[in-house]
Amino acid sequence: MKFAAFERTLQGTGASRRLRIAGKVPGIVFGAGEPAMIELDHNALYHAIKKEAFHSTILEMELAGKTEQVLLRDFQMHPYRQLILHVDFQRVDATTKITKKIPLHFINEETSPAVKTENCLVNHVVTELLITCLAKELPEFLTVDLGQLTKGTTLHVNDIQLPAGTKVVTHGKPNPVIVSVTAKVEEEVIVAAAPAPAPAKGKGKK
Hints:
Elements: E1 2-4, E2 6-7, H1 13-21, E3 24-30, E4 36-41, H2 42-48, H3 52-56, E5 59-63, E6 66-77, E7 84-91, E8 97-107, H4 113-116, E9 120-124, E10 128-134, E11 142-145, E12 154-156, E13 167-168, E14 177-183
Parallel strand pairs: 1-5, 3-7, 8-11
Antiparallel strand pairs: 2-4, 3-4, 5-6, 6-7, 8-10, 9-14, 10-13, 12-14
């Protein structure tokens, strides 16, 4: 994905506030050289961050007539307004080793025996994984095939086929669970018995 950035000469809280009023977002690019202060069009950036690929792929940033490869590292949102306050990018090249969270795309869940014939629920325990790899090998997402899931089974990190040169960072946890399968709990419907009719009042004795 490509996006345009512009050099930012003024810094400080006041300058950043004026940028935001003008529909711009202050930012910084770091890594592989001197940090560069930049500004971006807010609306264009706001729409870009809604796309999954903008978070998990190498981006092409046009700045001062040059194109640089960068990776989105962080952005800050206003506490209650749909407003981006600041954005950080990292310069990368083919030899840059990076650590990044990558989304998981689950496929074939509906056709798995667990769902199709065994009336089970498939629980996505995690929806993204932290991986480490060279920038040139960064995948946009990881595909998790659920087509063979059966009742009572679990899918772990080691069950995923990773691209060459890619490793999952588990922070010491041995083979974490990604997906689990549980049987649906059928609700028991209790029908309350209708109350017995009240006995007819007898006629008074004469």
